[in-house]
Amino acid sequence: MMERKRTDCPALPPGWKKEEVIRKSGLSAGKSDVYYYSPTGKKFRSKPQLSRYLGNTVDLACFDFRTGKMMPGKLQKQKQRFRHDPLSLAKLFWEKRLKSLRSSDVSEQVLRTMDLPKGLQAVGPDPSHDTLLSAIASALHMSSTPITGQTSVAAEKNPAIWLNTSQPLCKAFTVTDEQIRDQEVKVSQARRSLEEALMADSLARAAENTRELLEGKTA
Amino acid sequence: MMERKRTDCPALPPGWKKEEVIRKSGLSAGKSDVYYYSPTGKKFRSKPQLSRYLGNTVDLACFDFRTGKMMPGKLQKQKQRFRHDPLSLAKLFWEKRLKSLRSSDVSEQVLRTMDLPKGLQAVGPDPSHDTLLSAIASALHMSSTPITGQTSVAAEKNPAIWLNTSQPLCKAFTVTDEQIRDQEVKVSQARRSLEEALMADSLARAAENTRELLEGKTA
DNA sequence: CGGAGTGATTTA
DNA sequence: TAAATCACTCCG
User: Fold this and answer.
1) Domains recognised in chain B with CATH numbers
2) What is the pTM of this model?
Protein backbone atom coordinates (compact mmCIF):
# COMPACT_ATOMS: atom_id res chain seq x y z
CA MET A 1 0.00 0.00 0.00
CA MET A 2 2.96 2.32 0.57
CA GLU A 3 4.02 1.40 -2.91
CA ARG A 4 2.49 4.54 -4.26
CA LYS A 5 5.45 6.83 -3.71
CA ARG A 6 5.79 9.62 -6.21
CA THR A 7 9.37 10.54 -6.90
CA ASP A 8 10.85 13.56 -8.59
CA CYS A 9 11.81 13.09 -12.20
CA PRO A 10 14.91 15.11 -13.08
CA ALA A 11 14.50 14.39 -16.77
CA LEU A 12 11.25 16.36 -16.80
CA PRO A 13 10.58 19.99 -15.88
CA PRO A 14 10.44 20.86 -12.16
CA GLY A 15 7.36 19.60 -10.37
CA TRP A 16 6.80 16.50 -12.43
CA LYS A 17 6.59 13.25 -10.50
CA LYS A 18 7.01 9.64 -11.42
CA GLU A 19 5.23 6.67 -9.87
CA GLU A 20 5.67 2.94 -10.37
CA VAL A 21 2.93 0.51 -9.41
CA ILE A 22 3.55 -3.21 -9.26
CA ARG A 23 0.80 -5.46 -10.53
CA LYS A 24 -0.27 -7.79 -7.78
CA SER A 25 -2.23 -10.49 -9.54
CA GLY A 26 -3.25 -11.94 -12.83
CA LEU A 27 -1.23 -13.02 -15.79
CA SER A 28 1.03 -10.01 -15.48
CA ALA A 29 1.62 -10.17 -11.75
CA GLY A 30 4.97 -8.67 -10.88
CA LYS A 31 5.06 -6.42 -13.87
CA SER A 32 4.71 -2.75 -13.23
CA ASP A 33 2.98 0.29 -14.60
CA VAL A 34 4.65 3.67 -14.69
CA TYR A 35 2.75 6.90 -14.32
CA TYR A 36 3.72 10.54 -14.37
CA TYR A 37 2.05 13.47 -12.70
CA SER A 38 2.24 17.03 -13.92
CA PRO A 39 2.82 19.85 -11.39
CA THR A 40 -0.93 20.32 -11.39
CA GLY A 41 -1.55 16.67 -10.59
CA LYS A 42 -2.71 15.40 -13.95
CA LYS A 43 -1.90 11.76 -14.47
CA PHE A 44 -0.14 10.42 -17.57
CA ARG A 45 -0.12 6.75 -18.46
CA SER A 46 1.93 6.59 -21.62
CA LYS A 47 4.64 8.32 -23.55
CA PRO A 48 2.36 9.41 -26.37
CA GLN A 49 -0.02 10.94 -23.88
CA LEU A 50 2.83 12.73 -22.17
CA SER A 51 4.24 13.84 -25.46
CA ARG A 52 0.96 15.31 -26.62
CA TYR A 53 0.64 17.30 -23.43
CA LEU A 54 4.15 18.71 -23.39
CA GLY A 55 4.16 19.44 -27.07
CA ASN A 56 7.43 20.87 -28.27
CA THR A 57 8.27 22.43 -24.93
CA VAL A 58 10.16 19.29 -24.07
CA ASP A 59 11.83 16.88 -26.45
CA LEU A 60 10.95 13.38 -25.37
CA ALA A 61 12.72 11.67 -28.24
CA CYS A 62 15.34 10.29 -25.87
CA PHE A 63 13.04 9.99 -22.89
CA ASP A 64 12.53 6.47 -21.65
CA PHE A 65 9.08 6.34 -20.15
CA ARG A 66 9.69 3.28 -18.01
CA THR A 67 12.88 4.44 -16.34
CA GLY A 68 12.11 8.13 -16.45
CA LYS A 69 15.52 8.95 -17.78
CA MET A 70 16.96 10.38 -20.93
CA MET A 71 18.72 7.75 -22.95
CA PRO A 72 21.76 9.05 -24.78
CA GLY A 73 22.55 7.70 -28.20
CA LYS A 74 19.56 6.54 -30.12
CA LEU A 75 16.62 8.73 -30.77
CA GLN A 76 14.46 5.74 -30.08
CA LYS A 77 14.31 3.16 -27.42
CA GLN A 78 17.19 0.82 -27.55
CA LYS A 79 17.82 -1.82 -24.98
CA GLN A 80 21.40 -1.75 -26.02
CA ARG A 81 23.63 -4.26 -24.38
CA PHE A 82 27.24 -3.72 -24.87
CA ARG A 83 30.14 -6.01 -24.87
CA HIS A 84 32.02 -5.06 -21.79
CA ASP A 85 29.13 -4.87 -19.46
CA PRO A 86 29.01 -7.08 -16.38
CA LEU A 87 26.37 -9.29 -17.85
CA SER A 88 28.43 -10.37 -20.78
CA LEU A 89 31.42 -11.03 -18.63
CA ALA A 90 29.43 -13.05 -16.17
CA LYS A 91 28.00 -15.11 -19.00
CA LEU A 92 31.46 -15.79 -20.22
CA PHE A 93 32.45 -16.95 -16.80
CA TRP A 94 29.57 -19.35 -16.39
CA GLU A 95 29.86 -20.65 -19.89
CA LYS A 96 33.36 -21.78 -19.08
CA ARG A 97 31.92 -23.97 -16.41
CA LEU A 98 29.19 -25.33 -18.63
CA LYS A 99 30.84 -25.96 -21.93
CA SER A 100 32.22 -29.41 -21.39
CA LEU A 101 29.18 -30.81 -19.71
CA ARG A 102 28.68 -34.44 -20.61
CA SER A 103 25.83 -36.80 -20.10
CA SER A 104 26.25 -40.08 -18.34
CA ASP A 105 24.22 -42.78 -16.77
CA VAL A 106 26.06 -42.27 -13.54
CA SER A 107 25.73 -38.93 -11.97
CA GLU A 108 29.07 -39.00 -10.26
CA GLN A 109 30.79 -39.77 -13.49
CA VAL A 110 29.22 -36.78 -15.06
CA LEU A 111 30.60 -34.69 -12.31
CA ARG A 112 34.11 -35.85 -13.16
CA THR A 113 33.67 -35.33 -16.85
CA MET A 114 32.69 -31.75 -16.40
CA ASP A 115 36.36 -30.98 -16.84
CA LEU A 116 36.33 -27.40 -15.74
CA PRO A 117 39.31 -25.37 -16.78
CA LYS A 118 41.88 -25.48 -14.00
CA GLY A 119 42.09 -21.77 -13.67
CA LEU A 120 38.40 -21.35 -13.33
CA GLN A 121 38.09 -24.19 -10.92
CA ALA A 122 40.58 -22.52 -8.68
CA VAL A 123 38.92 -19.19 -9.00
CA GLY A 124 35.43 -20.48 -8.52
CA PRO A 125 33.79 -21.34 -5.28
CA ASP A 126 34.14 -24.72 -3.65
CA PRO A 127 33.40 -27.74 -5.86
CA SER A 128 30.53 -28.88 -3.74
CA HIS A 129 27.17 -29.89 -5.09
CA ASP A 130 25.51 -26.78 -3.87
CA THR A 131 27.92 -24.53 -5.62
CA LEU A 132 27.70 -26.45 -8.85
CA LEU A 133 23.99 -26.30 -8.72
CA SER A 134 24.04 -22.62 -8.12
CA ALA A 135 26.38 -22.14 -11.02
CA ILE A 136 24.24 -24.07 -13.42
CA ALA A 137 21.06 -22.56 -12.22
CA SER A 138 22.48 -19.11 -12.59
CA ALA A 139 23.72 -19.81 -16.06
CA LEU A 140 20.40 -21.22 -17.11
CA HIS A 141 18.58 -18.28 -15.79
CA MET A 142 20.96 -15.79 -17.23
CA SER A 143 20.50 -17.18 -20.68
CA SER A 144 16.76 -17.12 -20.70
CA THR A 145 14.51 -14.29 -21.81
CA PRO A 146 17.68 -12.36 -22.35
CA ILE A 147 17.11 -8.77 -21.51
CA THR A 148 14.00 -8.27 -19.53
CA GLY A 149 14.01 -11.42 -17.47
CA GLN A 150 15.72 -12.08 -14.20
CA THR A 151 18.98 -10.99 -15.70
CA SER A 152 18.22 -7.36 -16.00
CA VAL A 153 16.36 -7.27 -12.74
CA ALA A 154 19.20 -8.72 -10.76
CA ALA A 155 21.79 -6.70 -12.55
CA GLU A 156 20.01 -3.45 -12.07
CA LYS A 157 19.21 -4.10 -8.48
CA ASN A 158 22.64 -5.33 -7.52
CA PRO A 159 25.24 -3.40 -9.45
CA ALA A 160 27.75 -3.96 -6.69
CA ILE A 161 27.56 -7.71 -7.07
CA TRP A 162 28.07 -7.60 -10.76
CA LEU A 163 30.92 -5.20 -10.59
CA ASN A 164 32.76 -7.27 -8.01
CA THR A 165 32.27 -10.48 -9.87
CA SER A 166 33.35 -9.26 -13.22
CA GLN A 167 36.27 -7.22 -12.09
CA PRO A 168 38.77 -10.05 -11.71
CA LEU A 169 37.47 -11.78 -14.77
CA CYS A 170 38.11 -8.78 -16.92
CA LYS A 171 41.80 -9.23 -16.50
CA ALA A 172 41.74 -12.77 -17.71
CA PHE A 173 39.99 -12.25 -21.01
CA THR A 174 40.02 -10.05 -24.01
CA VAL A 175 36.48 -10.23 -25.19
CA THR A 176 35.62 -9.74 -28.83
CA ASP A 177 32.19 -9.41 -30.34
CA GLU A 178 32.57 -12.75 -32.04
CA GLN A 179 33.48 -14.49 -28.84
CA ILE A 180 30.59 -13.09 -26.96
CA ARG A 181 28.20 -14.10 -29.65
CA ASP A 182 29.55 -17.63 -29.63
CA GLN A 183 29.32 -17.85 -25.90
CA GLU A 184 25.78 -16.67 -25.88
CA VAL A 185 24.84 -19.25 -28.46
CA LYS A 186 26.47 -22.01 -26.50
CA VAL A 187 24.84 -21.02 -23.29
CA SER A 188 21.54 -20.85 -25.04
CA GLN A 189 21.98 -24.28 -26.52
CA ALA A 190 23.10 -25.79 -23.27
CA ARG A 191 20.11 -24.35 -21.59
CA ARG A 192 17.69 -25.69 -24.15
CA SER A 193 19.22 -29.12 -23.94
CA LEU A 194 18.81 -29.21 -20.21
CA GLU A 195 15.29 -27.99 -20.43
CA GLU A 196 14.31 -30.61 -22.93
CA ALA A 197 16.02 -33.28 -20.94
CA LEU A 198 14.29 -32.24 -17.75
CA MET A 199 10.96 -32.23 -19.47
CA ALA A 200 11.34 -35.52 -21.27
CA ASP A 201 12.51 -37.40 -18.26
CA SER A 202 9.96 -36.11 -15.83
CA LEU A 203 7.23 -36.95 -18.26
CA ALA A 204 8.62 -40.42 -18.71
CA ARG A 205 8.76 -40.86 -14.96
CA ALA A 206 5.25 -39.62 -14.51
CA ALA A 207 3.99 -42.02 -17.11
CA GLU A 208 5.83 -44.84 -15.49
CA ASN A 209 4.54 -44.07 -12.06
CA THR A 210 1.04 -43.85 -13.33
CA ARG A 211 1.36 -47.18 -15.03
CA GLU A 212 2.67 -48.78 -11.88
CA LEU A 213 -0.17 -47.37 -9.88
CA LEU A 214 -2.73 -48.75 -12.25
CA GLU A 215 -1.09 -52.13 -12.42
CA GLY A 216 -0.98 -52.29 -8.68
CA LYS A 217 -4.66 -51.62 -8.44
CA THR A 218 -5.65 -54.25 -10.93
CA ALA A 219 -3.23 -56.86 -9.68
CA MET B 1 -15.81 -2.95 -39.45
CA MET B 2 -13.09 -5.02 -40.89
CA GLU B 3 -13.98 -8.60 -40.30
CA ARG B 4 -10.84 -10.55 -39.83
CA LYS B 5 -12.03 -13.92 -40.79
CA ARG B 6 -11.11 -16.93 -38.80
CA THR B 7 -10.86 -19.78 -41.23
CA ASP B 8 -10.96 -23.45 -40.48
CA CYS B 9 -7.61 -25.15 -40.44
CA PRO B 10 -7.81 -28.67 -41.86
CA ALA B 11 -4.28 -29.46 -40.72
CA LEU B 12 -5.35 -29.13 -37.11
CA PRO B 13 -8.03 -30.97 -35.15
CA PRO B 14 -11.66 -29.98 -35.73
CA GLY B 15 -12.63 -26.63 -34.29
CA TRP B 16 -9.28 -24.93 -34.64
CA LYS B 17 -9.27 -21.66 -36.54
CA LYS B 18 -6.62 -19.63 -38.26
CA GLU B 19 -6.48 -15.86 -38.56
CA GLU B 20 -4.13 -13.52 -40.40
CA VAL B 21 -3.85 -9.91 -39.32
CA ILE B 22 -2.06 -7.24 -41.34
CA ARG B 23 -0.10 -4.72 -39.32
CA LYS B 24 -1.51 -1.34 -40.14
CA SER B 25 1.04 1.07 -38.72
CA GLY B 26 4.51 1.44 -37.36
CA LEU B 27 7.78 0.29 -38.77
CA SER B 28 6.38 -3.13 -39.54
CA ALA B 29 3.27 -1.91 -41.30
CA GLY B 30 2.22 -4.28 -44.05
CA LYS B 31 3.66 -7.33 -42.39
CA SER B 32 1.22 -9.84 -41.08
CA ASP B 33 0.76 -11.91 -37.97
CA VAL B 34 -0.83 -15.34 -37.95
CA TYR B 35 -2.88 -16.52 -35.01
CA TYR B 36 -4.66 -19.73 -34.21
CA TYR B 37 -7.64 -20.26 -31.97
CA SER B 38 -8.41 -23.44 -30.13
CA PRO B 39 -11.97 -24.77 -30.08
CA THR B 40 -12.32 -23.06 -26.71
CA GLY B 41 -11.17 -19.74 -28.11
CA LYS B 42 -7.68 -19.53 -26.72
CA LYS B 43 -5.34 -17.57 -28.94
CA PHE B 44 -1.97 -18.86 -30.08
CA ARG B 45 0.66 -16.56 -31.46
CA SER B 46 3.52 -18.85 -32.41
CA LYS B 47 4.32 -22.41 -33.36
CA PRO B 48 6.18 -23.18 -30.15
CA GLN B 49 3.22 -22.02 -28.16
CA LEU B 50 0.89 -24.13 -30.22
CA SER B 51 3.18 -27.09 -30.00
CA ARG B 52 3.33 -26.87 -26.25
CA TYR B 53 -0.39 -26.91 -25.98
CA LEU B 54 -1.01 -29.78 -28.32
CA GLY B 55 1.86 -31.84 -26.99
CA ASN B 56 2.03 -35.29 -28.47
CA THR B 57 -1.58 -35.31 -29.49
CA VAL B 58 -0.63 -33.65 -32.78
CA ASP B 59 2.66 -33.80 -34.56
CA LEU B 60 3.52 -30.33 -35.77
CA ALA B 61 6.92 -31.23 -37.18
CA CYS B 62 5.68 -30.60 -40.70
CA PHE B 63 3.19 -27.94 -39.80
CA ASP B 64 3.83 -24.54 -41.33
CA PHE B 65 2.54 -21.96 -38.92
CA ARG B 66 2.22 -19.16 -41.44
CA THR B 67 0.26 -21.05 -44.08
CA GLY B 68 -1.47 -23.42 -41.69
CA LYS B 69 -0.65 -26.42 -43.80
CA MET B 70 1.42 -29.52 -43.47
CA MET B 71 4.63 -29.40 -45.47
CA PRO B 72 5.89 -32.99 -45.70
CA GLY B 73 9.32 -32.00 -46.95
CA LYS B 74 10.25 -29.75 -44.11
CA LEU B 75 11.31 -31.44 -40.99
CA GLN B 76 12.64 -28.92 -38.55
CA LYS B 77 11.81 -29.10 -34.94
CA GLN B 78 12.43 -32.12 -32.86
CA LYS B 79 10.38 -32.37 -29.77
CA GLN B 80 10.06 -35.88 -28.57
CA ARG B 81 13.00 -37.26 -26.69
CA PHE B 82 13.30 -40.31 -24.54
CA ARG B 83 15.18 -41.40 -21.52
CA HIS B 84 18.06 -43.17 -23.16
CA ASP B 85 19.40 -40.33 -25.21
CA PRO B 86 22.15 -38.14 -23.83
CA LEU B 87 19.78 -35.42 -22.92
CA SER B 88 17.66 -37.54 -20.67
CA LEU B 89 20.69 -38.89 -18.98
CA ALA B 90 21.95 -35.43 -18.40
CA LYS B 91 18.62 -34.65 -16.91
CA LEU B 92 18.96 -37.49 -14.45
CA PHE B 93 22.22 -36.02 -13.38
CA TRP B 94 20.76 -32.66 -12.69
CA GLU B 95 17.86 -34.09 -10.87
CA LYS B 96 20.29 -35.76 -8.54
CA ARG B 97 22.01 -32.48 -8.02
CA LEU B 98 18.76 -30.74 -7.43
CA LYS B 99 17.80 -33.16 -4.74
CA SER B 100 20.70 -32.06 -2.65
CA LEU B 101 19.86 -28.44 -2.91
CA ARG B 102 19.60 -26.99 0.53
CA SER B 103 17.48 -24.01 1.13
CA SER B 104 18.67 -20.92 2.81
CA ASP B 105 16.26 -18.69 4.58
CA VAL B 106 15.68 -17.12 1.21
CA SER B 107 14.58 -20.23 -0.58
CA GLU B 108 12.66 -21.36 2.46
CA GLN B 109 10.65 -18.27 2.15
CA VAL B 110 10.17 -18.85 -1.54
CA LEU B 111 8.75 -22.23 -0.79
CA ARG B 112 6.46 -20.92 1.84
CA THR B 113 5.18 -18.21 -0.41
CA MET B 114 4.12 -20.81 -2.88
CA ASP B 115 1.57 -21.88 -0.32
CA LEU B 116 0.76 -25.23 -1.83
CA PRO B 117 -2.55 -26.67 -0.80
CA LYS B 118 -1.98 -29.15 2.00
CA GLY B 119 -3.90 -31.79 0.20
CA LEU B 120 -1.66 -31.59 -2.78
CA GLN B 121 1.43 -31.82 -0.70
CA ALA B 122 0.26 -34.94 1.06
CA VAL B 123 -0.85 -36.63 -2.10
CA GLY B 124 2.56 -36.36 -3.69
CA PRO B 125 4.74 -39.47 -3.76
CA ASP B 126 7.35 -38.05 -1.47
CA PRO B 127 6.53 -35.25 0.92
CA SER B 128 10.17 -34.56 1.70
CA HIS B 129 11.64 -31.17 1.40
CA ASP B 130 14.15 -32.34 -1.17
CA THR B 131 11.56 -33.76 -3.46
CA LEU B 132 9.45 -30.70 -3.19
CA LEU B 133 12.39 -28.53 -4.05
CA SER B 134 13.30 -30.72 -6.97
CA ALA B 135 9.85 -30.54 -8.31
CA ILE B 136 9.85 -26.82 -8.07
CA ALA B 137 13.25 -26.47 -9.64
CA SER B 138 12.30 -28.77 -12.48
CA ALA B 139 9.12 -26.89 -13.05
CA LEU B 140 11.01 -23.67 -13.16
CA HIS B 141 13.33 -24.93 -15.81
CA MET B 142 10.69 -26.63 -17.83
CA SER B 143 8.60 -23.56 -17.86
CA SER B 144 11.09 -21.19 -19.37
CA THR B 145 11.84 -20.38 -22.94
CA PRO B 146 10.92 -23.45 -24.97
CA ILE B 147 7.78 -23.87 -22.97
CA THR B 148 7.32 -20.17 -23.05
CA GLY B 149 6.29 -18.70 -19.76
CA GLN B 150 6.32 -20.85 -16.69
CA THR B 151 2.62 -20.41 -16.68
CA SER B 152 2.19 -22.24 -19.94
CA VAL B 153 1.78 -25.70 -18.50
CA ALA B 154 -0.89 -24.77 -16.08
CA ALA B 155 -2.30 -21.89 -18.01
CA GLU B 156 -2.80 -23.70 -21.21
CA LYS B 157 -3.69 -26.89 -19.44
CA ASN B 158 -1.54 -28.91 -21.75
CA PRO B 159 -3.40 -32.18 -21.94
CA ALA B 160 -0.41 -34.37 -22.58
CA ILE B 161 1.55 -33.08 -19.65
CA TRP B 162 -1.18 -33.00 -17.11
CA LEU B 163 -2.54 -36.36 -17.98
CA ASN B 164 0.75 -37.93 -17.07
CA THR B 165 2.21 -35.84 -14.36
CA SER B 166 -0.80 -34.91 -12.37
CA GLN B 167 -2.73 -38.08 -12.67
CA PRO B 168 -2.63 -38.92 -8.97
CA LEU B 169 -3.16 -35.34 -7.97
CA CYS B 170 -6.14 -34.74 -10.16
CA LYS B 171 -8.21 -37.26 -8.32
CA ALA B 172 -8.03 -35.34 -5.12
CA PHE B 173 -9.25 -32.10 -6.55
CA THR B 174 -11.73 -30.51 -8.76
CA VAL B 175 -9.57 -27.96 -10.46
CA THR B 176 -11.28 -24.85 -11.61
CA ASP B 177 -9.92 -22.31 -14.01
CA GLU B 178 -9.80 -19.85 -11.19
CA GLN B 179 -7.62 -22.13 -9.11
CA ILE B 180 -5.27 -22.71 -12.00
CA ARG B 181 -5.00 -19.04 -12.52
CA ASP B 182 -4.12 -18.40 -8.90
CA GLN B 183 -1.53 -21.08 -8.99
CA GLU B 184 0.04 -19.58 -12.06
CA VAL B 185 0.54 -16.33 -10.33
CA LYS B 186 2.14 -17.92 -7.33
CA VAL B 187 4.50 -19.95 -9.46
CA SER B 188 5.35 -16.86 -11.42
CA GLN B 189 6.19 -14.91 -8.33
CA ALA B 190 8.12 -17.73 -6.75
CA ARG B 191 10.11 -18.18 -9.91
CA ARG B 192 11.17 -14.62 -9.95
CA SER B 193 12.22 -14.77 -6.34
CA LEU B 194 14.22 -17.92 -6.86
CA GLU B 195 15.94 -16.54 -9.90
CA GLU B 196 17.06 -13.47 -8.09
CA ALA B 197 18.13 -15.38 -5.03
CA LEU B 198 20.14 -17.95 -6.95
CA MET B 199 21.87 -15.41 -9.05
CA ALA B 200 22.70 -13.06 -6.25
CA ASP B 201 24.00 -15.83 -4.06
CA SER B 202 26.19 -17.60 -6.58
CA LEU B 203 27.68 -14.38 -7.80
CA ALA B 204 28.35 -13.27 -4.29
CA ARG B 205 30.16 -16.55 -3.65
CA ALA B 206 32.25 -16.18 -6.77
CA ALA B 207 33.22 -12.66 -5.88
CA GLU B 208 34.13 -13.63 -2.36
CA ASN B 209 36.31 -16.53 -3.39
CA THR B 210 38.04 -14.52 -6.01
CA ARG B 211 38.81 -11.85 -3.52
CA GLU B 212 40.27 -14.34 -1.11
CA LEU B 213 42.46 -15.78 -3.81
CA LEU B 214 43.85 -12.44 -4.76
CA GLU B 215 44.50 -11.49 -1.19
CA GLY B 216 46.34 -14.74 -0.67
CA LYS B 217 48.59 -14.05 -3.59
CA THR B 218 49.55 -10.61 -2.50
CA ALA B 219 49.94 -11.51 1.14
C1' DC C 1 -5.05 -5.95 -15.16
C1' DG C 2 -5.87 -7.69 -20.11
C1' DG C 3 -4.53 -8.14 -24.53
C1' DA C 4 -4.32 -6.52 -29.37
C1' DG C 5 -0.93 -4.30 -31.78
C1' DT C 6 3.74 -3.29 -32.58
C1' DG C 7 8.70 -3.08 -31.36
C1' DA C 8 12.84 -5.80 -30.32
C1' DT C 9 15.59 -9.80 -30.42
C1' DT C 10 16.66 -14.29 -31.91
C1' DT C 11 16.79 -17.77 -35.28
C1' DA C 12 17.36 -19.95 -39.82
C1' DT D 1 18.36 -10.33 -44.29
C1' DA D 2 14.02 -12.00 -43.51
C1' DA D 3 11.13 -14.72 -40.84
C1' DA D 4 9.78 -16.23 -36.42
C1' DT D 5 9.39 -15.60 -31.68
C1' DC D 6 9.11 -13.02 -27.82
C1' DA D 7 8.45 -8.75 -24.99
C1' DC D 8 6.30 -4.52 -24.20
C1' DT D 9 3.37 -0.51 -24.73
C1' DC D 10 -0.80 1.68 -24.32
C1' DC D 11 -5.36 2.32 -23.61
C1' DG D 12 -9.88 0.09 -22.50
Assistant:
1) 7-70 (3.30.890.10), 86-218 (no CATH)
2) 0.48
